[in-house]
Amino acid sequence: MALRKNQRYLTAWEKQYFTDAVLALKAEKKPGNSLNTYDQFVSWHQNNMDAGHFGPALFAWHRELLRRFEIELQRIMNDSTIGLPYWDWSVDNSQTSSIWANDFMGGNGKASESWAVTDGPFRRGNWELNVRDPGDPLYLRREFGPNPGAASSLPTPANVQAALKATPYDVWNYSPNAQSGFRNMAEGNIPSPGGLMHIRVHAWVGGNMSSAFTSPNDPVFWLHHCYMDKLWADWQAMHTDQYAYLPDVGARTGHNLNDRMAPWNEKRPADVLNTWDLGYHYDNDDYLMPNDVLYPGQWIGSASRRFSLAYSASDKNNLVLNSSTWSHPLWLSTNGQLSDGWCVMQGDGNLVIYDWSNNPPWGSNTDYGYWIYLRVEDATAQRSGHLQMYKWSDGTPINWSVPPPEVGNPPQH
Ligand code: ZN
Ligand code: ZN
Question: I need a surface site. Which of 138, 311, 372, 400 has the fewest CB within 10 A?
């Protein structure tokens, strides 16, 4: 299970790990392939614009593309827990946001050098574009807004909220001309109040990102579309009374619920409706899954977001359960000062904090030898917000929940 995290909370190590994996796909050519593994994705995007855009399959097709990319990242790093990071451009919305630093995506292009990106892992000389649109140079270009060639600003939180409120998923005629619906507002074809959403982000980054066909030449494409994918998951969670996808019939070929998606022709939109089934989830879910890792500053929250579980540097590197209505923590893993480290929901069922020397100063003692997941649960009539563990295979509650006194301290054994 891959945990897809907000890029603003990635550690320096996670950023380097991700960009190293992307560079490794660029450097790899599988036997019999004329393109390297990364550029195969650019080519799929370039040659299947109609299958993946301007209609309901926008979300389904990019979900399939992103998941295939994520699986390649996991394969080349031999690590099934790597998840794509997402870029919430409604918050990290400036030219100086940390996403554009030298240690991650690199920054804006240089106006004096035809907008070539000259810093970061994807700088000119270190990242060559092989699948190009006519006239494109060999290097990555960006021309951030408000430069003349770009959108002046990124979509706002209000734009995001307007799209998330839109129902149903899509409406006739299931094209850029559809007058309402979540998909067309989020895709960016309804100017107001959606603010041109997805399209505007491509246009704001400018350069290769603003060239629709080959926009995956800029690795920030994955972070942009990962956030789009998260928005679809969020929309589904907000509108459980709505069909997750529309239509069954009536859209052009490739865009109906049971049409196979080109060029792979393996999956249909109906097959990609649930991220859990596909093997990943987002860091705003209320679950910590087997092999999910939290680094300092990272957290998951309850469905209402009133309760959160953080691995917190400011709480002496402890796990902490917080409530938005109380200034003090509801629960801390220990009262002591722990060394810098990380926290993992291990495959043996144990939730463990490790320091960087791999010593575990704290564990939940739930290493029963089977997969367990942990959930941050909202308050009910019976009890306050709390953490509860469940057996993965059948959802049976494990005798571990905090804080006490409802069930008691973690059992010792
Ligand atoms: Zn696309
Ligand atoms: Zn796009």
Answer: 138
CA 318/CA 62 separation, integer angstroms: 37
Q: pTM for the complete prediction? A: 0.92
pLDDT tens digits, residue range 2-46?
Answer: 999 999 999 999 999 999 999 999 999 999 999 999 999 999 999
pLDDT the model gives residue 339: 93
Q: How far is the CA of 178 from the centre of ligand 2 (A)?
A: 18
Tell me which fold the domain 287-402 belongs to. Agglutinin, subunit A (2.90.10)
How many angstroms separate the alpha carbon of residue 324 from the centre of ligand 2? 35
Least distant ligand from the CA of 199: 2
Ligand nearest to the CA of 89: 2
| Distance of alpha carbon 172 from alpha carbon 154, whole angstroms | 28
Q: Where are the domains of the chain?
A: 2-280, 287-402
The percent of residues above 90 in pLDDT, for the chain, comes to 87
Element spanning 374, H or E: strand 372-377
Domain 2-280, CATH: 1.10.1280.10
Nearest to 105 by CA among 10, 228, 180: 10
Which ligand has the nearest atom to the CA of 198?
Answer: 2
User: How far, in Å, from the CA of 69 to the mean position of ligand 2?
Assistant: 15
The residue-averaged pLDDT of 60-85 equals 97
Q: What is the CA radius of gyration of the chain?
A: 22
